[in-house]
Amino acid sequence: MCTVLILRNAHPEWPLVVAANRDEFYARPAHGPKVLSESPRAVGGQDVERGGTWMGVTHAGVLVALTNQRGARIQGLAPRSRGEVVLRALQAGSVEAIERYLGTLPAPEFLPFNLLYGDARTLRVAYARPDRARLSHEDVPAGVHVLPNDTLDNLAFPKVRRALSLAGAVAQRPWPELVTGLQAVLADHVLPPREAATGPLAENDLPADFLQRLQALCIHTEGYGTRSSAIVALAPGRVGHYLATDTAPCQGGWRDVTGLLTAG
Questions:
Q1: Which of 39, 93, 170, 242 reaches 20 to 30 Å from 62, CA-CA?
Q2: CA 23 centroid distance within chain
Q3: pLDDT at residue 76 in the model
Q4: What pLDDT sits at residue 1?
């Protein structure tokens, strides 16, 4: 998952709304939302290659989502998959249990990541970095926020600035209009000027035009891009809505998978 939009106590009906795009190589196989765990019952996408997930939610309204940290790929393959972290956090079942799990996590065994976790009452981000033995955490304040491939609301990313503007404009609309608005944000193809995407975000082994394309909210390149999307609405103790698409959000295909959270 590469871009996560967060509406925390910003919508009149739902205390927490999360809308996210997953960006990945097209060749890496994955399943759309499915039951990942029975106790607690958790639903999310699944990475076929290593078995983990990038985002999921439990029937009781606990959400976990992960973005890779920018630049991590140059470190090669880590001993353990970051998707494992999301799956284990979902299986922990509560914010307190997630934090106990994360407190035991050997961060250097994973490539760097940014983990959003919580529910309609408590929401935090944990950061795993190679120079720290343990994860650091920060609370997500009320309002509209974006978790990119870096720290929360990092305005060095043009896509963060654009997402904050677009999502903020629709954040208080009634639910059907909010869904339409967030789907449009996730499907946004606007590119920033090349210098904005390649100045502070330059990487020596990546060409400038590719870096520019990575700053669209909905990414399309030859071998890599936005593969799927999700919109989740949470209230205390429950999931109100879970919408997903297994294609780029600009291609449609949205469906309601909330029913997967109900046993039987």
A1: 170
A2: 10
A3: 61
A4: 56
Those residues with Cβ within 8 angstroms of residue 252's Cβ, 6 or more apart along the chain or in another chain: 245
Residue with tokens 């919408």: 243
| Strand (E) or helix (H) holding 7 | strand 3-8
pLDDT of 228 reads 98
**CA separation for the pair 146, 4 (Å, rounded):** 6
Taking CB atoms within 8 Å and a gap of at least 24, the contacts of 241-247 are 241/14, 241/175, 241/179, 242/33, 242/43, 242/57, 243/179, 244/32, 244/33, 244/45, 246/32
Q: Do 127 and 114 touch, CB atoms closer than 8 A?
A: yes
**Lookup: tokens for 182:** 């967030």
175 three-state secondary structure: helix
Query: Would you say 112 and 129 are in contact if contact means Cβ atoms under 8 Å apart?
Result: yes
Q: Which domains are assigned to the chain?
A: 3-154+223-261 (3.60.60.10)
